[in-house]
Amino acid sequence: MNWGEFIELIERWSQLCGVATLAAAVQMYISKRKFTFTHYFMSVLMAIFAAYLADSFCTYLMLADSLKTGVIGVSAYCAPHMMDGLDTFGKYIAKHPSKLISLFFRGK
Fold this sequence. Notes:
By secondary structure, the chain is mainly alpha-helical. It is about 85% helix and about 0% strand. It has four helices and no strands. The protein has helices spanning about 5-30, 35-60, 65-95, 95-105. Helix 1 crosses helix 2 (about 35-60), helix 2 packs across helix 3 and helix 3 packs across helix 4 (about 95-105). The longest helix is centred in the C-terminal third of the chain and has 31 residues, at about 65-95. The mean pLDDT is about 85.
């Protein structure tokens, strides 16, 4: 990696962080500050990365462009909600591990 590629990498990451910061600020303003700025910022980053992964997956499967747009939109919308759900599930399991253990080792 030479200096030109490194500078381009820094420019792209700064653009990504700038867009994520603006989107998180707008989201925070619209929702009347239900969560912290970090929560919104991470949600935006998850949505962007989910959209990128969905685009790569659609390219790999050679899907039509009309279908690709819908898949990217749905995955970008669902990613932060799925992560919140997994976080809530993890907190529940951390508080009640015996329920999970009894679910797996139930004798019938």
